[in-house]
Amino acid sequence: MPVKNAVLSSLILVALFGFAANLNAQNTATTRAEAAFSKAASGGPLAMRAFLDQFPKGADLHIHLSGSVYAEHFIHAAAEDGICVDPVGLRFADPPCDSPLVPAKDLDGKMSAASQALYDKLIDSFSMRGFVPKEGETGHDHFFATFSKFDGPSDSHNGEWVNELTKLAAMQNNQYLELMTTPPRRHASKIAGEIGWHLDEAHPDFAGLREQLLAKGLRDEIALDRKHVTEINESYKQLAHCGTPQAEPQCKVEIRYIYQILRGFPPEMVFAQTLLGFETVTQALAAKSDDWVGINFVMPEDGYVSMRDYTLQMKMLDYLHSVYPTVNISLHAGELAPGLVPPEGLRFHIRQAVEMGHAKRIGHGVDVMYEQDAPGLLKELAAKHVMVEINLSSNDGILGVTGDMHPLHSYIDAHVPVAFSTDDEGVSRIDITTEYTRAVVEQSLDYKLLKQTARTGMEHNFLPGASLWAAADNFTKRNAACATAEPEKPAAGKCKEFLEANEKAAAQWELERRFAEFEAKF
Predict the structure, then answer these.
(1) Residue pLDDT, tens place only, 332-341
(2) Which domain holds residue 350?
(3) pTM exceeds 0.90, yes or no
């Protein structure tokens, strides 16, 4: 026994020394990466941009599919569909393309000087490119007006656009996207209109309205909603040759979808679409599929109906969450700034989104310091581990909020989890590296904080399963199964079993592998 104990002790010591040596090597690599980061920072924004190009970014969790398509791709799709261009309104129009309308195909290929001029104006109309605020049109107005202007190309192009988005993500070492998109809802809207809105807003009978909608066949649209993303995925994977020897790099980018609900419509339609979203996501989660993973409310938060019905809509979510507790909720909340709405409109949206809307993540959260008891709200967000999706470029373009007027550091100082996202990269003419670069140049984040935000995004994605990390938002200690494993080596044993059983942990492990690979270059 003594000999066996001695041998066992020796083996344990060897393992511990090996782990310590590996940890020391990782720390050394991180230190070298931090030094390279500091050198790039001293070289200015362009040097920092180059450094961050291949920095592992983990996830983009706040990204609208339609708003992320660059105008050039819309014009190409319109040309294929035989759509027209209105040269005065600078928007797409239905055929026939009789004068003064111009066929979109005239702007997709060889062009005259006049066609080039219209092409350039159309791109500016579809995006924030070159936009300068002027009397009667703010950045907010121009940004949100773009969506109706590029509406026209058929949904058959969605797979092409996802292919472009994932290609761009792969180019920048971004591994996971949760794309917001609005699926079919005509049947839900129709029956909601037939039923109408007769609820007492002080004590609304949501259960009764739900039963009426289900009795009229609301669930009939679930199959269409799931087919919507299935067809997108099939098209994108075919274009990228996924699953073949010719598979392109974007095939390694993982995608899930967030069900968009249009908050600017009458309450009966918002409730019907929200109910359909909850039903659809519940079914998708139960099937362990790779389509819908959560819901979100969209359309301008400062819109008349959005402001008038905000509390009512949070009550809808409160009720539906009680019926469908597994559905993940991320909400646009606090995408507001002083002057955009009356002062009282800045004082409660984020708190209600968390306390009534059961949001696990908040999109934007720009007005947090104007909310009633802002310090208390920050403590609540930290305690509940509610993550804030930070969109620096769109906050600047839409709200004019940037620099020290942005609450990013208020969140960080209060230990509220944050991660960077693009929102509408096509409209803003940006990419995810732009957001990381702005975080350094404008918000003075260091390498350690950038790494933390990337890990935070992967911690708060809506993939199923346990986290790689032993404690929420604490990236110092991994789950026991993978505590001593080395990310740069293939997982084995209990760690491999754990990763195979938990999609979230597997995605987080991949991020750690990418960090090890990135830092080893220095």
Answers:
(1) 999 999 999 9
(2) 155-459
(3) yes
